[in-house]
Amino acid sequence: MASMDFYRRVPKDLTEATSLGAMMSIAAIAVMTILFLSETIAFARTSMGTAITLDENDQPQIRLNFNITLMDLHCDFVSVDVWDTLGTNRQNVTKNIEKWQLDEEGQRRIFSGRNREQREVVHEEHEETLEELHEDGEQAVELTPDTFQGFVNGHEMAFIDMYAPWCIWCQRLHPTWEKFGEEVHKLRMPVGVGKVNCVTYPQLCKDQKVMAFPTLRWYKGGQMILPDYKMDRTVDALVGYTKRKLEMEEKYKNWAENNPSDSRMKPNAGNSRPEHPGCQVSGHLMVNRVPGNFHIEAKSVNHNLNAAMTNLTHRVNHLSFGEPITKLAPHLEKTPFMRKVKRILKQVPEEHKQFNPMDDKEYITAKFHQAYHHYIKVVSTQLNMGSSRGAETFNDVNSISVYQMLEQSQIVFYDEVNVPEARFSYDMSPMSVVVQKEGRKWYDYLTSLCAIIGGTFTTLGLIDATLYKIFKPKKL
């Protein structure tokens, strides 16, 4: 057994201690100590590494979260549509979507509903044609830019239909509006009934800010009263609305005469209330994991939009894919999942946090007949912040799956007859990015320590032997 000894001892009396050997020993200890500390620090540190793999997510759909403010579009005309290459074509999606009407400062003013579909107004069918109704004269006066202001100023109250001849809803309303004018004349109501052809006189309708056809607007003392009429388009409904307006005005006059200095319990005079055409639409969609788009379009089930007055200027408050991890309600921030997400995201470099690069950006169109289109590449990303020195999976407490986005936007120009839309086109990448901590294995660390000790000892031993031979006193 002793013959297999690799570490045989040299008798002490056969060794010789020298000053040079002592210096080399001190140098060896110093070098090994420095290298040992450096190697230990390097072992304790971790770096961030990335890798590209195939996306193995087998879920057929992905969640799309959005919160978008339309600066100049009323909520009644906001429609969210979804299309993709599998043939999906959903119009005016309302599920999991809510709308808020905004004031002139961009603050929420009126809740316009969640999961609410727009009600279709009732139209009235008539046996007489419009030409037959006009045989005894037109009660609904056709107005021009020269006569419009004089007409609304000359009547204490006026009710005006602003229409386009090509609009199907306007065509259905024409006989009803004429009969309504006849009824107002028959009942001797102090209301002027008129109509404006917005194709013949586009500037007049533009000055009146007509966004959709037909627009049925009430005027009092020459001033428009908002909001516009949006109820059923039948003679009875129009007459009932007119009577209520007149009754409200009569109540106000009587109250003002009897209470000239008392402002308490003041009845509504039917004056216009602020009606800023801004809308915040938010919610989420479940979309297929294929190329597609969702777009916000100016559209209504009861109107044809005026392309010349449709402005799709918008602000993206939030847009992301997957489960939302930013801009959550306070009560959602305290869930176990969000605590895990926050802990992991603290360790992720900023360049790997492109979850919502479009947030808080405004896309302003200075002219009509144009809108921004956005093109988004969606990349699945695995964030694994667990130790790389042991076995781990992407399902442990230190890993989450998120989606990053690459985005480009450009202005698209439309023909004058087409209504623009704010389009968000997305494409899912087949590859996935893995972001994880990278550190050295424990056996790599031990191997390096052995190499430091053995290498330093051997190297300095060779240097010592060489110097000893050079400086060894020669025998006489």
Descriptive overview:
The chain is built from eight helices and 20 strands. It has helices at 19-44, 130-133, 148-154, 168-186, 202-207, 235-258, 336-345, 442-471, and strands at 47-54, 61-70, 78-84, 89-90, 97-102, 108-114, 141-143, 157-163, 191-197, 212-213, 215-220, 223-229, 278-288, 292-298, 304-305, 314-321, 361-363, 370-384, 399-413, 421-438. Helix 4 (168-186) packs across helix 6. The longest helix has 30 residues, at 442-471.
The span between the termini is: 44 Å
Helix content: 25-40%
By secondary-structure content and strand pairing, the structural class works out as alpha+beta
Mean pLDDT: 85
Residue windows where pLDDT falls under 50 for at least 5 positions: 389-395
Question: What is the global morphology?
Answer: rod-shaped
Strand content: 25-35%
Number of helices: 8
Radius of gyration (Å): 39 Å
Largest sheet geometry = 7 strands, mixed
Order of helices and strands: HEEEEEEHEHEHEHEEEHEEEEHEEEEH
Query: What is the number of strand segments?
Result: 20
Features:
seven-stranded mixed β-sheet; six-stranded antiparallel β-sheet; 20 strands; 32% strand
